[in-house]
Amino acid sequence: MKQWVLALVGAVALAGAAAAHHGWGSYDDRKLIKLEGAVLALKYQNPHADIVMNRDGKKWDIVLAPVSRMEARGLKREDIEVGKVVIVEGYARKDGTAEIRAERITANGKTVELR
Predict the structure, then answer these.
(1) Cα–Cα 20 to 30 A to 81, which of 4, 21, 40, 108?
(2) 8-11 own/partner pairs: CB under 8 Å, 24+ apart
(3) How do residues 13-53 score in pLDDT, each as one tens digit?
(4) Long-range CB contacts for residues 90-93, cutoff 8 Å, separation at least 24
């Protein structure tokens, strides 16, 4: 009986964690956006890294890939540090929130596919 209760509690906890993470369906994958500029802020953490960039006077949150995936594909933290100029291509949120799911990033002379 105890094992059943523990399994149920574990399943509920995992479901809650999955629901807390946003899905990709909230992004408009019909319109690719390209931003070029300096990184204003960096969160180099899991479940994915994030940077902030400026476009037309508006700050955009850019959702990158998990740190391990970026590093495996040759993108290092130093490449996207605050102040570095990067090019990001991705899709904006459908609801108008200034957030982009990045598909690729060009930094330090190399382009890295993130998905």
Answers:
(1) 21
(2) none
(3) 444 444 344 566 899 999 999 999 999 999 999 999 999 99
(4) 90/27, 90/32, 90/33, 90/62, 90/63, 91/27, 91/28, 91/29, 91/31, 91/32, 91/33, 92/27, 92/28, 92/31, 92/33, 93/26, 93/27, 93/28
List Cβ neighbours of 104 (8 Å cut-off, separation of 6 or more).
88, 89, 90, 111, 112, 113, 114
For the chain, give every domain's residue range.
Answer: 24-113
Helix (H) or strand (E) holding 99: strand 99-107
User: What number of other Cβ atoms are within 10 A of residue 63's Cβ?
Assistant: 21
**Which amino acid is located at 47 in the chain?**
P
- Mean pLDDT on 94-106: 97
